Amino acid sequence: MSWSVLLNASLVLVSILLLWKGSDWLVDSAAKVGRRLGMSEVTVGLTIMAFGTSAPEFAVTISAALSGKTDISVGNVVGSNIFNLGIILGLCGMLIPLRTNREVVYRDGSILLGTTVVLLWFLSDYKLDRWEGAVLFGGLVSYLLLLLVWRRKWGDYQPEDAIDPARSMIAKLPARATTGDVMKLIAGILGVIVGGHMLVTAAAALARTFGVSEWTIAVTIVAAGTSAPEMATSITAAVKGFHGMSVGNLVGSDLFNLLGVLGAAGLMRELPVSSGAFSSVGMLCVMVAVVVIFMRTGWRIYRWEGAVLILFGISRWVLDFMGH
User: Fold this and answer.
1) Spatial distance between the Cα atoms of 161 and 165, rounded to a whole number of angstroms
2) Cα separation of 122 and 118, whole Å?
3) Is the pLDDT of residue 175 over 60?
4) Mean pLDDT: which of 6-15, 81-90, 94-103, 232-241 is highest?
5) Helices 243-255 and 70-83 meet at what angle, rounded to 10?
């Protein structure tokens, strides 16, 4: 094995660590903001935590778009969403049956499914135009406004068989952020930016070395690396019994990836993609539909359903490499 391969592989590992730790600090600081605003753990999971844990996807996607590596830009988002709903949600469901509720199923789940179908249509010509990026980003603004209006009109919600609000993870946080929290937030942002740029560069180099397409690398290895924060936060929340935050984080992250991250990248430049993009997004559409059905059955994601989701996610990886 050449020194260049070892160097790039090492850079991938270092960049993933930077992304993971940087996002960890971002989420911690962001959660305290939610505590200050009096938000519930589900709302924090759908918004602040989802945005924080999607920071690696944002850094990698924008960096790749600016560098002209459009397959990595789009593939990272698609692969991350598949990884979130397949491997991560599946693992959480296998550890402990996750409670859901009507809003996260009918409101957030239907919006996620609709957005994924729209992206499939946008990529039918194997490119994402700037106007299509604008539509996606406009969808993010509309979704945030919907959450704001919903909260003011109906209030926050909890799972159908909600846990004791007194045990809320958010309620245990301090009411005010300290100077250390601000410094941690800045360090987290820097770690995510540097780690994202490093991951794009090293992953593209490895793809060229082994003759694997940038799309395949992006939708598998890069996507798994940028999804590390979602895995850490969602599994931790699930094990501690905070099901609303666990499910909300993954659904919210996927929405932010499609609408915010990909929308912003599409606004910057036209994003042409390889032929494998259409089949991957089609698979994502099927996965989102299955997840929505699983969340509705008994208002839980049972262990056997978690196993099915994991199998779904692994199968996608195998098909991507076999297709290559």
Assistant:
1) 12
2) 6
3) no
4) 81-90
5) 160
What is the DSSP-derived secondary structure letter of residue 96? S
**Rounded distance between C-alpha atoms, residue 27 and residue 232, angstroms:** 11
What whole-number distance in Å separates Cα of residue 35 and Cα of residue 30? 9
Q: What per-residue confidence (pLDDT) applies to 163?
A: 39
**What average pLDDT score do residues 79-95 get?**
94
- For 20-51, the pLDDT digits (tens) are 777 777 667 766 666 666 666 566 666 666 77
Q: Please tell me which residue, 98 or 31, carries the higher pLDDT value.
A: 98
What is the reported pLDDT for 286?
Answer: 95
Question: What CATH architecture does domain 3-323 belong to?
Answer: Up-down Bundle (1.20)
DSSP assignment string, 138-156: HHHHHHHHHHHHHHHHH--
pLDDT (mean) for 221-247: 78
Rounded CA separation 39/244 (Å):
13
Phi-psi region of 298 (alpha: psi -120 to 50; beta: other; left: phi over 0): left
Spatial neighbors of 30 by CB under 8 A, at least 6 apart, are: 44, 48, 49, 51, 52, 185
Measured CA angle at 264 (ends 190, 256), to 5 deg: 80
What confidence category does residue 172 fall into, taking pLDDT thresholds of 50, 70 and 90? low
Helix locations, the chain, DSSP H: 3-37, 41-46, 48-53, 55-66, 70-83, 89-95, 102, 110-122, 130-154, 179-210, 214-217, 223-226, 228-239, 243-255, 262-268, 276-296, 303-323
pLDDT score recorded for residue 291: 96
Which tokens belong to 128? 């994402």
Amino acid letter, residue 101? N
